[in-house]
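step=encode ok
step=design start
structure_in=
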């Protein structure tokens, strides 16, 4: 069963492009390939895809620049393939408008799970009701500024509420420390990571079943945090997922 019509894979390494296309063949009816940023833009204009998988190491344009230009053309989800230890560039592409990333070498089930989470997320947006956000059994009433889990009110502080609202309204997206800091405190300078870590810890104590092994707000080490639309099935759960 296909989720969507078309996924575009922009990757210059034909071997990796082939692996990605194979992994996604049940997720989209057509998985199209482009070997450079220029080919990618041409493919988008020819037929707009439902999602883009983007390699950061393209021969003709840097990752953050590709992302910025893609965002001028399309609002569809962008899942980036990044190099291990490439946190700095990962943060740059997320800030430039990418939705999520997978680190190479990646496992096919993780890639598929991330891509399908983004597709679910963009479908949620189409039936989006602005007043109530639900993530699993977590419910945020944006009008009343009240968060409940399984019907129980969570008693969040204003900072925790703003943090959870930013994460939940972007559920499925990885938000960088900078994006979260901006959403909660605006343009305040400070140690964003340290500040966030403290408040995330407090927030997890209130919303997670096991705060030391969070399934709602997960850490992306060196990059930021993501609110999961629904927790990974156990078999897909990456072993190295940090709890910090
Ligand atoms: Ca490459």
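sequence_out=
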């Amino acid at each position: 069963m296909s989720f969507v019509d078309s996924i575009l894979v922009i990757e210059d390494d034909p071997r990796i492009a082939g692996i990605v296309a194979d992994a996604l063949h049940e997720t989209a009816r057509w998985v199209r390939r482009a070997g450079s940023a220029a080919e990618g833009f041409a493919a988008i204009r020819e037929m707009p895809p439902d999602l883009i998988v983007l390699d950061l190491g393209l021969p003709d344009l840097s990752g953050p620049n590709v992302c910025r230009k893609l965002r001028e053309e399309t609002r569809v989800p962008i899942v980036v393939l990044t190099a291990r230890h490439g946190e700095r560039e990962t943060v740059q592409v997320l800030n430039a408008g990418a939705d999520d990333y997978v680190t190479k070498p990646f496992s096919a089930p993780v890639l598929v799970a991330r891509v399908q989470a983004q597709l679910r997320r963009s479908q949620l947006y189409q039936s989006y009701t602005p007043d109530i956000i639900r993530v699993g059994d977590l419910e945020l009433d944006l009008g009343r500024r009240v968060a409940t889990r399984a019907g129980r009110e969570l008693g969040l502080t204003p900072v925790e509420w703003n943090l959870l609202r930013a994460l939940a309204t972007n559920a499925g997206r990885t938000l960088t420390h900078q994006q979260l800091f901006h959403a909660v405190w605006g343009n305040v300078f400070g140690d964003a990571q340290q500040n966030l870590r403290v408040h995330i810890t407090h927030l997890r104590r209130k919303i997670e079943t096991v705060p030391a092994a969070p399934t709602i707000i997960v850490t992306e080490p060196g990059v930021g945090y993501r609110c999961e639309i629904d927790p990974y099935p156990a078999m897909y759960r990456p072993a190295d997922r940090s709890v910090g």
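step=design ok
step=annotate ok -> The chain has a mean pLDDT of 86.
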